[in-house]
Amino acid sequence: MSIPLRKLNDQYFASCPLGLEVPLENELKNLGVQIQEVVKRGVNFKATTEQALKIVFHSRIASRLFLKTFNFKIKNEKELYFGIKEINWKRFFDPHLAIKVIVTRSTTDKRYSKFQNTLYLSQVIKDGICDRFKKDNLGRPDVDLKNPDVIINCHLRPSENPHSQKSIATILIDFTGEPLCNRGYRVKDAKAPVRENIAAGIIDLLEWKGDENFIDLTCGSGTFLIEAYIKAKKIPASFMKLNLLQKNEHLKLWNFQKLNIFKSAQNRKAIQKEIKNSHKLLEESKSKKLDCLFHGNDIHYRTVMNLKEDLRYLGWQEDIKVTSVDARDFADYSTQKNLLFSNPPYGKRLDEERSLEDLYYELGENFKNNFKKSRLCVFSANREMLKRISLKHSKKHIISHGSLDCRLVEYLNF
Ligand SMILES: C[S@@+](CC[C@H](N)C(=O)[O-])C[C@H]1O[C@@H](n2cnc3c(N)ncnc32)[C@H](O)[C@@H]1O
What we know:
The protein is α/β, with parallel strands linked by helices and 414 residues long. The protein folds into 2 domains: 6-174, VC0802-like (2-Layer Sandwich), CATH 3.30.2130; 196-234 and 288-412, Vaccinia Virus protein VP39 (Rossmann fold, 3-Layer(aba) Sandwich), CATH 3.40.50.150. The chain is built from 11 helices and 15 strands. It has helices spanning 21-30, 49-58, 77-86, 118-135, 196-205, 223-233, 239-247, 265-286, 301-314, 350-370, 383-386; strands at 6-7, 11-15, 34-39, 42-46, 64-74, 99-105, 150-158, 167-174, 213-216, 294-297, 320-323, 338-342, 375-380, 393-401, 404-412. Strands 1, 2, 3, 4, 5, 6, 7 and 8 form an 8-stranded mixed beta sheet that branches. Strand 12 (338-342), helix 10 (350-370) and strand 13 form a beta-alpha-beta unit. Helix 3 (77-86) packs parallel to helix 4. It is globular. The termini are far apart. The mean pLDDT is 94. The structure holds S-adenosylmethionine (SAM). S-adenosylmethionine binds next to helix 6.
């Protein structure tokens, strides 16, 4: 059985949490790529290999980056198998590498893709890949679900034709393996940290330009502070990995380094060039002057001590001040222009809820009464608690954080 494949040249998909599609689109545009379509939880675009590498080193907002390879129409599992077997997998990777297959289905269409059992489909795809390698007398790759060298993603969506029984399977390769948003700067185990790219995306949604003091009243492990600092200093988002590469430039930190397309002299040179460029930016950031203050605060003393240790490790302890007072009493910089940020606890237990009510209410009151040139921005999954802030909001966004539906609310005091 022969399935006609459509080759997708220089096409990529970058994923992001729901609600951060526009900041991601803007970021990708600034990195020079050609946007094709913004969809729920991500952006489709065309890019050169050099631009894709730039995204790996610099994107603050993407969760993952995928290289699109082919798409084809299928009616059933058998056609999926034969379509997969049609792909010359050797072009992408060698059979000694371990693979993992993930199948996702589009939920944007009312006619959900009829293929329900994604686990079974991933086995069908794995068989198709292995059988193609075997047909080419190349052995077959092993499967490693924990630590794969190559992650193959198959995205299924219903055909555009409403009368068609077919679905479209798009085959993508996870470019980096480890999510781009795992920056690796949180050395100490944090309690309820926000994902790094959510913090970065929120900072962009708030249009923070680095000219207001960035104050996180309930900073926890300091994700928002650190992401704001990275933005203000123009530090490449991959700075932790760059530090590792400085020690050993042959380290394989991302999956794309194992792909056959990156074995060409031209693409190897492109990686070296991007590492060099990013190092240069990292060096330049060290002498970049800041136009605002960074201040983190948390009531939990141990949390503050952990953050201080992390900041010392990063060498940023002079630039980011950290204190431990009750956010309700925070009074510093009250005459200055501040972005007062808070990601307060969401509350699960009843006794906690009662004191939370007070925390949310008092956060608003302290801001209203004492910070006349500032704005207060609160990010929380607890809509009832947000209603305790007795101020009129100027902006509201919905952003998903894992399974939680969170609200980002901005209040102005001028
Ligand atoms: C959801 S966590 C913040 C997580 C943080 N955004 C991060 O990425 O790590 C909420 C934090 O608020 C702190 N907190 C709770 N009540 C507080 C209060 N009254 N004043 C200051 N901080 C408080 C907690 O100790 C906790 O670290």
